[in-house]
Amino acid sequence: MKDREYRQMELRVNSEEDKNYMVEGYASTFESYVLFEEDGIKYSERIEPTAFDEADMTDVVFRIDHEGPVYARTSAGTVNLWVDEHGLGQKTDLSKTQRARELFDEIEAGNYPKMSFAFRVADDEYDKETHTRIIKRIAKVFDVSPVSFPANPTTELSVSTRDYFNGVIEAEKAERLEAEKREIQKKKIRILMEV
């Protein structure tokens, strides 16, 4: 869906001696991170620690690359989500079906070393000085997913995030152009006054 956004994080499995098919990790942190760089300007994003306070996390699913079959979900009691000082954490039980246990083996083998989460933003703002998008409120968390190719924020973005920053970049360029035009106009007026 166009309004969904995705971010990646680390994913861990329990040790071999405690193989209970549980995976855990943080789907989001509250640290600022650079998404990409354009024209020498680094564009960043930060999720506020209170962003998840009113987020709908009633039926969040666990699946691969945000697509395909569902392996676990909060409404089934097999995905547990929490928010702490570090970010949005998750612990998922992949013991319930053969397919889920096979996914656990893939994660344990290192085929899916990162996590990502899909969400919709309810409120955000843009800090022009630091070129940072600040996500103040998340409306809905759709899924937490192990990913085969984690999105590198400096090279790949989901459509909705890139669209957001494309609008910001265009607005900043228009502001610079307008300021340059005003400066040229001021210089012309000064020259005319000197004559």
Concise summary:
With 195 residues, the protein is α+β, with helices and mostly antiparallel strands.
How would you characterize the overall build of this protein?
With about 200 residues, the protein is of the alpha+beta class. The protein has one domain. The chain is built from 2 helices and 10 strands; from the N terminus they run ββββββββαββα. It has helices at about 100-110, 160-195; strands at about 5-15, 20-30, 35-40, 40-45, 60, 70-75, 80-85, 85-95, 115-125, 130-145. Strand 3 and strand 4 (about 40-45) form a beta hairpin. The longest helix has about 35 residues, at about 160-195. The chain is elongated and about 85 Å long.
Overall pLDDT level = 82
So what's the overall shape? elongated
N→C terminal distance: 61 Å
**Alpha-beta classification:** alpha+beta
Oligomeric state of the chains in view: single chain
The fraction of residues in strands falls at 35-45%
H and E order: EEEEEEEEHEEH
Task: Name the descriptors.
ten-stranded mixed beta sheet, 2 helices, 10 strands, 195 residues, alpha+beta, 24% helix
Record the SSE blueprint.
Layout: E1 5-13, E2 22-29, E3 33-38, E4 41-47, E5 61-62, E6 72-73, E7 79-83, E8 87-93, H1 98-108, E9 114-127, E10 132-147, H2 159-194
